[in-house]
Amino acid sequence: MASSRKVAVVEGGEEMAVAYWKANLRLITILLGIWAFVSYVAGYLMAGMLSGINLGQVPLSFWIVQQGAIITFVVLIFVYAVVMDRYDQRFNVHE
Amino acid sequence: MSAVEIWTWALVILTFGIYIYIGYASRVSDTKGFYVAGQGVPAVANGAATAADWMSAASFISMAGLISVLGFEGAVYLLGWTGGYVLLALLLAPYLRKFAKFTVPDFVGDRYYSSTARTIAAVAAVFISITYVAGQMRGVGVVFSRFLGMSIEVGVIVGMVIVAFFAVIGGMKGITWTQVAQYSVLIIAFLIPVIAISLQLTGNPIPQLALITSDLVPRLNQIQVELGFNEYTQPFANRSMVDVIAITIALMAGTAGLPHVIVRFYTVPNVRAARYSAGWALLFISLLYLSAPVLAIFARTNLLESLNNKPIAEVEELGWVKSWKATGLLGFEDKNGDGILQIRGPKATDGIANELTKLDNDIIVLSTPEVAQLAPFIIALMAAGGLAAALSTASGLLLVVSSSLAHDLYYRLINPKATEERRLLVGRIVIFGAVVVAGYFGINPPGFVAEVVAFAFGLAAASFFPIILLGIFDKRANSQGAIAGMLVGLIFTAVMIVMMQSVRIFGTAEPLMGPFMGISAQGIGTLGMILNFAVTLIVSRMTPPPPAEIQELVESVRIPRGAGAASAHD
């Protein structure tokens, strides 16, 4: 486990690692919250309600599950990658 | 030879030549190159390779057809097969890259410090992958037979030779760069016809915008209702909400847990690249997945409008009708003898029987360019694209079979003293053997193949996904918990699927079991996954915690630093 020892060598490494992990978990929770809301709540549970509303010529519920949610997923992953880049630097755990 | 056949031959020879050249140019000489492409694949290239790896013959050929039948509920495939990448990117890929070994069973075996866990994972990976790959080889055969008039058998053998060539000499490195080329071919082949049809039907070249701005959807909804079908966009007309939710969860978790997708993230240089390449992968996948639902609408509208209320003699003269009717995938019958083809849905009230007796889902995508009367070149492009999709997925799966047998079972368990040369040789022999087995099943498909392919996701969701996730996020998870969890999840899911599908597997008159709590066989993996989570968590807490060095291992995979330096074979 050479790599974990390497982290501890960095000044305050242990505490930074704990704080980094907490920040990561918080970010994951927020992004997966959006992921679950878009797919399961807006897409499925509210489908009956939203099918009365139109986006252009298409019922909103249909558009969400066949277009909107997929676009959201792509954005979520890139947001995660960009924010984690910052966390890697801030908590000094970058490669 | 028709113009379509000439173009198809030209494109097939050209693209296969490119794949062979790339395979030869990226030949490898060590196991790190063979199993993880030397961990030198840039994030964007890995994204494209992952997209090709992921999108199978089914995504390319069958999905739009399936969606056009399911309407709103086509969402299960669209959301299920894309939403899993969010799980992969946030919960699995970066940490598995930091772990920096060769395979998924590697992680399971090391993290749960258990040869039993490693063996179960390796056997599950081989079982899931070999049946999945048989479906791909079959897809290659079908494309060859439909477009070039070859027999399915010859088509399968041609596909085997090509895959064997670049997989045996290039391993993961050869597969990766060939997949990048295959992604380009398949996405061009899919998008050009969709854009052409979009222009033709709506005057708008961007299908996603045409969907919103043109009258396509209201028009299709109206036709559907007139013919006695449900409105195309009506939610939960074909399947219940509970079932739709369960299927979507199973497909998402299964996507994140399928070994051939996970190992792609072992090939990038560092943790950061693993995160970004998941984003690129989904972006590349979404180009097809955002177009397929629009194509489904175009195709359904076109099909209903060009067949319904048309004189049968006229319909039979259409070129695409002739060739598809000959394959047995399309069929109609003039039941009321009026010489006109009438299409009717289950809710039709005018007393006219439905005369379109057979419409296979696979026709929808492959026939679309012909139905829309696009140029022969574009029709030929569809064939090249279907082949690229099938071959790229097949090669990724074959590598998993090879690495599970040659690395996890042979090297890690049977002969840990094997030299580098010997391990590489065994890897090459096993991948060649796997190609032969996959080809055999492609030519002689056992009845269960189609079933297992359809349910591979449920099995992956119920076995790999929970224990990999807990291996990273729950330090307390131990080997007893993981083994119990994996077995319970796998066995529960497999038994339920077999019982619900007994009509097709054993030939029983009635299914041995109906939907369970409103959930069908496709969604049952979700329950298997929940069981796996529960069993792993509970059993882990009733048995001793994992040893200190395992807890350190978990801490180390949570931190990006050191990924570049980590050795793949310590």
UniProtKB/TrEMBL annotation, chain B:
Principal localisation? membrane
Q: Mind telling me which residue stretches traverse the membrane in this protein?
A: 6-24, 78-96, 117-135, 147-168, 180-201, 244-266, 278-299, 377-405, 425-443, 449-473, 485-507, 519-539
UniProt topology in membrane: Multi-pass membrane protein
* Compartment(s): Membrane
Read off the Pfam families from this record.
SSF
UniProt keywords (A-Z) are: Cell membrane, Membrane, Transmembrane, Transmembrane helix, Transport
This protein's name: Cation acetate symporter
Q: Which family does it belong to?
A: Belongs to the sodium:solute symporter (SSF) (TC 2.A.21) family.
InterPro entries of this UniProt entry? Na/Glc_symporter_sf, Na/solute_symporter, Na/solute_symporter_CS, Na/solute_symporter_VC_2705, Sodium:Solute_Symporter
